[in-house]
Design goal:
The complex is a heterodimer.
Chain A (H helix, E strand, L loop, with lengths): L1 H20 L4 E5 L14 H7 L7 E3 L5 E3 L2 E6 L5 E6 L13 H12 L14 E8 L2 E6 L6 H6 L8 H5 L14 E7 L3 E6 L13 E6 L3 H10 L4 E2 L7 H7 L2 E4 L6 E6 L9 H10 L2 H8 L3 E2 L23 H11 L6 E7 L3 H16 L3 E7 L1 H10 L5 E6 L5 H5 L14 H12 L3 H18 L2 E7 L3 E4 L2 E2 L2 E2 L6 E2 L4 E2 L1
Parallel strand pairs in A: 1-10, 15-16
Antiparallel strand pairs in A: 2-3, 4-5, 5-7, 6-7, 8-9, 9-10, 11-19, 12-19, 13-17, 13-18, 14-18, 20-23, 21-22
Helix pairs in contact in A: 8-10, 9-11, 14-15
Chain B lengths: L4 H22 L1 H4 L31 H36 L2 H15 L3 H12 L3 H28 L2 H8 L4 H37 L11 H8 L8 H28 L4
Classes of the chains: A alpha+beta, B mainly alpha.
C-alpha cells in the first residue's frame, strides 16, 4: 500500500517535472467575456482586445499614435483627396492558407458596409463610394467628398481584413475567427478562456516570440490581483491604486502607469431645466474637485477642461476656465434661482464600479453647494437606451474611449444627436468642417474653435484623462498596450 | 413556556440585541458619530481607530455610522414587507378556506405557483419590472412571502372551522364575519406571529442580497448589502469594510430566527 503510494508520488513528480520543461503559455486576464469575436459585428472593447492578435488592418497606430503601414506597405491620396490608393504587402497568408490579395480587402469592407449586415461601425466607412482592385496588390478607395477620419477608421480594430473565400461561404467569424494576425485561434470556452497559438507564417519575420497565448476571463479585480501575486496570470490592465502596495510587496510583477486616451466626464442633459441654464452648468463645474475625483475614483489622472483627452495631438488646455470654487458655485446657483427643492437625477451604470464611485463623489460635492441630486443605478442596456439614446437623465458619470481621429471624439456635438443634447450651431459647423479639412494644421485651427466653445459652455464637467495600471509578471518583456485603442499588442513580447 | 434555561437565555439575548438594534435605528442621528454619507477623502480605507471606531470605507465614510443607519434600511424593509405578506397572505388564506372549493383551488394554485419560483430570482424579476429601489424591494418581498402565510392561514382555518365552538357559534346564527373575528383570527394569531418573525429574518437577507446586486438601496443610502458590495474589491486591503456590516446582518438574522423558534414554543400550547 505504502509502496504504491510512493510510486504514484514519484510518477506525479516526474510528470510535473516534464510539464515544467515545456514553455508556460502567457496568460492574460480579460475582465469579461467578449460578446463576439467578429471584429466587424461589435463595438465591444473586449472583442478588439482579443482579436488584435488574430487580425491585421491595412494601417495601424504606432506607439505614439501615428498611423503607419501594416498590411498595406504604403498608400497615397490624390490631389483632390477623393482617391486613396493602398499597395498591399507581399507574401501575407491567412490562417487558412489563403494568400492576401486586394479581393480580400474589398470583400471585407463591402461586408462591413453592407446594410443587411448591420455593423455598428458601418458609418465610419460611409464616405467610401466604391472600392477598385486593379491588380492583386492594389486597392483603390473612391470617396464622395474629402474625409480625413477614414485613415483612423482603417487603422481601428473594426478595419480588420478577413479572407474573401470564407466571407463568401458564410463562415461563422463570431466564434471561429480567421485572419492574418500574429496568433491563430484555437478555442474559446465561454466565460472561461480563449486560447491562441503562434502563427508561424506571420508577415513580421521572427514574430511573435512565444508559442501560446491564453486570455483567462476573470471579471473580479480582486481575483486578478491574487492571480498576479500567485503567478497564475501574467498580466492585467485593470488594477487599482489600492492594489499597488500589495502587488509591489509580492516582488513578482512590474507595474507600468501610462495615461489612457479616455475622457472621464460628468455629463449634463442640456435640454432639460435647470441644466439648460448655462449658469447652473457653470456652478456644477465650479462645485467639482476634478483632481480629487480622478485620484479617488479613477486611480489618478490629468484634468482636461474640454472634450479631448490629455496627450492627444489636438488637445488644448482650458482647465483654468472653471477651477474648483464652491463659493462661486453657490452664488451662481443663487443667481439662477436653483435651490434644494429642485431634485436632479444622476443615472449611473451599475456594472462600472468606478463610475458609481465617482457618481457618489459628484453627488456629495454637489450637495455641498446646495444641489439636491438623487442617484439611480441602472444596468448597462438600460443606460445605453435611456441615457445615451433617449437622454432621459439629468446627470451621468461615464468615460468616452480614445479615438484615433479627433472627428471620432467630436462628431455630432453641438447637435441633438449626442446624449448631452447641447445645441450650438457654430461648434457643430467647426466640427463638420474639421472632418473635411486636410492636414493636421488646418484641422487643428477648426477643432480649436470647437473645443473652446465646448470648454466655455460646459455640456460636461470635463473631469480628465486617467492613468491605467498595466501589471505584468517579471518574466514578461516588451508588452505594449495601444494607448488609444486600449488593445493588447503581444507581437514583440518575450517570455524569460 | 420554555423550560430549558439555556434556550431561555438565548431568547432574552436575542430580544436584547433586537431591542438595541431597533433603538439604534430609531435614534440613528443621535447615536451615529458622523453623517453616514459624509466623505472624508483624506481618511479613506482607514482601519478602526479612536476617530472611526469601525474604520472608514473606500470614500472615507465612517463605517460605524453607516452600519447604524444601515439597520434602518434592513428593519424598514423587514417591517413593511412582512406587514404586506402577512396581511395579503392571511386574507387569501382565509378567503380560500371559507369559500367554495373552486375558488379555493384557484387561489391556492396561484399561491403555489408563486412558491415554486426561487425566491431571489422572483425578487429580481419583480424589481426589474418595478425599477430599482427600497420601496420596490418592499413590495417585491412582500408579495413573494405572501404564499407562506396563505398556506399557513388556510390550513389552520380549515382545522378551526371544524372545532366544536366554531360550529356551535355558526349554529347559533352568528354572521360569518363575526365568527372569523371572534373565533378564528384570535386562534391564528400565535402561528402568524411566529411566521412573521421567521419571515422577517428572510426579508433582511433578501434586502441585503438585492442591494448587493445593486437592485435595492441606491447609493449613497447606507444599506448592509450595499456596504458588502462596496467591500468586495477591498477584502484584502480593508477587511473591516466587509466585517461589520456582515456581522450586523448575520446577528440580526440569527436573532430573528431564535425569536421565531422561542415564540413558536411559547405560543403553541401543544408543545
Amino acid at each position: 500500500m505504502r509502496r504504491t503510494f510512493l510510486l504514484a508520488l514519484a510518477a506525479g513528480l516526474l510528470i510535473a517535472g516534464l510539464a515544467g520543461a515545456a514553455p508556460k503559455p502567457l496568460t492574460w486576464a480579460l475582465s469579461g467575456n467578449p460578446d463576439s469575436l467578429d471584429p466587424q459585428k461589435t463595438a465591444g472593447t473586449l472583442t478588439f482586445q482579443t482579436v488584435r492578435s488574430l487580425y491585421d488592418t491595412l494601417v495601424e497606430p504606432d506607439a505614439k499614435g501615428q498611423i503607419v503601414g501594416a498590411l498595406a506597405e504604403r498608400w497615397q491620396t490624390s490631389a483632390d483627396n477623393l482617391t486613396w490608393t493602398f499597395t498591399l504587402r507581399k507574401g501575407v497568408k491567412f490562417h487558412n492558407g489563403d494568400a492576401l490579395t486586394s479581393a480580400d480587402v474589398r470583400a471585407s469592407f463591402e461586408r462591413i458596409k453592407n446594410k443587411e449586415f448591420a455593423s455598428p461601425k458601418a458609418s465610419e466607412y460611409a464616405a467610401i463610394t466604391s472600392i477598385e482592385t486593379p491588380d492583386p496588390s492594389t486597392v483603390v478607395f473612391k470617396l464622395a467628398k474629402p474625409f480625413s477620419p477614414l485613415l483612423a477608421a482603417l487603422a481601428s480594430g473594426w478595419g480588420a481584413i478577413l479572407p474573401k473565400s470564407l466571407i463568401d461561404s458564410g463562415h461563422d467569424f463570431s466564434s471561429k475567427p480567421v485572419g492574418t494576425g500574429p496568433f491563430v485561434f484555437k478555442e474559446w470556452v465561454r466565460d472561461n478562456r480563449i486560447v491562441l497559438a503562434k502563427n508561424p507564417d506571420y508577415w513580421l519575420k521572427g514574430l511573435p516570440k512565444f508559442d501560446s497565448l491564453i486570455f483567462q476571463i476573470i471579471p473580479e479585480r480582486a481575483v486578478q490581483v491574487q492571480g498576479l501575486i500567485a503567478g497564475q496570470i501574467d498580466g492585467s490592465d485593470i488594477i487599482d491604486q489600492e492594489d499597488v502596495p500589495m502587488l509591489e510587496a509580492s516582488g513578482k510583477v512590474n507595474i507600468d502607469r501610462p495615461l489612457t486616451a479616455q475622457i472621464f466626464v460628468l455629463a449634463m442633459n442640456c435640454s432639460k431645466p435647470p441644466l439648460n441654464d448655462l449658469r447652473v452648468r457653470q456652478a456644477v463645474n465650479h462645485a467639482i474637485d476634478k483632481q480629487a475625483v480622478l485620484d479617488v475614483a479613477y486611480g489618478g489622472g490629468k484634468p482636461v477642461g474640454t472634450f479631448m483627452n490629455y496627450g492627444n495631438a489636438y488637445y488644448r488646455d482650458f482647465t483654468s476656465l472653471y477651477p474648483y470654487d464652491p463659493a462661486k458655485a453657490r452664488s451662481l446657483l443663487a443667481q439662477a434661482g436653483v435651490g434644494k427643492d429642485t431634485v436632479l437625477e444622476m443615472v449611473l451604470p451599475a456594472n462600472y464600479p468606478p463610475h458609481v464611485k465617482a457618481g457618489e463623489m459628484y453627488q456629495e460635492m454637489l450637495s455641498k453647494v446646495g444641489l439636491n441630486v438623487q442617484i439611480k443605478l441602472v444596468d448597462w442596456p438600460t443606460w445605453l437606451k435611456d441615457v445615451y439614446t433617449a437622454a432621459k437623465y439629468d446627470f451621468t458619470a461615464i468615460a468616452h474611449t480614445g479615438k484615433l481621429d479627433p472627428d471620432g471624439t467630436l462628431s455630432g456635438y453641438g447637435t441633438e444627436k449626442r446624449y448631452v443634447r447641447w445645441i450650438n450651431a457654430t461648434a457643430a459647423d467647426y466640427i463638420a468642417k474639421g472632418a473635411g479639412a486636410v492636414g493636421e494644421e488646418n484641422r487643428k485651427k477648426l477643432y480649436d474653435q470647437a473645443m473652446m466653445i465646448m470648454a466655455r459652455e460646459v455640456p460636461f464637467v470635463f473631469t480628465g484623462t486617467s492613468y491605467r495600471r498595466v501589471v505584468t509578471n517579471k518574466r514578461v518583456k516588451g508588452f505594449r498596450m495601444d494607448p488609444i485603442l486600449d488593445t493588447y499588442d503581444f507581437r514583440h513580447t518575450e517570455l524569460q | 413556556m420554555i423550560r430549558r434555561p439555556a434556550a431561555r437565555r438565548l431568547y432574552y439575548a436575542a430580544l436584547l440585541f433586537l431591542a438595541i438594534l431597533g433603538a439604534a435605528a430609531i435614534a440613528a442621528p443621535l447615536v451615529a458619530p458622523y453623517s453616514p454619507t459624509e466623505q472624508h477623502l483624506d481618511r479613506r480605507l482607514a482601519p478602526p481607530s479612536r476617530t472611526h471606531l469601525l474604520g472608514t470605507d473606500n470614500l472615507g465614510r465612517d463605517l460605524l455610522s453607516r452600519t447604524i443607519y444601515g439597520s434602518r434600511s434592513a428593519l424598514l424593509v423587514g417591517i413593511v414587507s412582512v406587514a404586506i405578506s402577512a396581511l395579503l397572505g392571511s386574507l387569501v388564506g382565509l378567503v380560500a378556506a371559507l369559500s367554495s372549493p373552486s375558488l379555493d383551488n384557484l387561489l391556492m394554485l396561484v399561491m403555489d405557483s408563486l412558491l415554486s419560483f426561487p425566491t431571489v430570482l422572483l425578487a429580481i424579476t419583480v424589481v426589474s419590472f418595478l425599477g430599482y429601489g427600497l420601496v420596490q424591494v418592499m413590495i417585491a418581498v412582500g408579495v413573494i412571502y405572501a404564499p407562506t402565510f396563505a398556506r399557513l392561514v388556510r390550513a389552520e382555518t380549515l382545522a378551526l372551522k371544524n372545532e366544536g365552538y366554531v360550529e356551535a357559534s355558526q349554529a347559533l346564527g352568528t354572521p360569518q364575519v363575526l365568527v372569523v373575528f371572534r373565533h378564528i383570527l384570535p386562534n391564528l394569531l400565535g402561528k402568524v406571529v411566529v411566521q412573521c418573525s421567521i419571515t422577517f429574518a428572510l426579508t433582511v437577507v433578501i434586502e441585503a442580497s438585492l442591494s448587493y446586486l445593486g437592485l435595492g438601496a441606491q447609493p449613497p443610502t447606507p444599506s448592509w448589502g450595499l456596504m458588502l458590495k462596496d467591500a468586495r474589491d477591498y477584502l484584502v486591503q480593508a477587511p473591516w469594510m466587509a466585517l461589520y456590516p456582515g456581522l450586523a446582518l448575520a446577528f440580526t438574522v440569527l436573532c430573528f430566527n431564535i425569536l421565531g423558534d422561542s415564540l413558536s414554543e411559547r405560543l403553541n400550547p401543544k408543545l
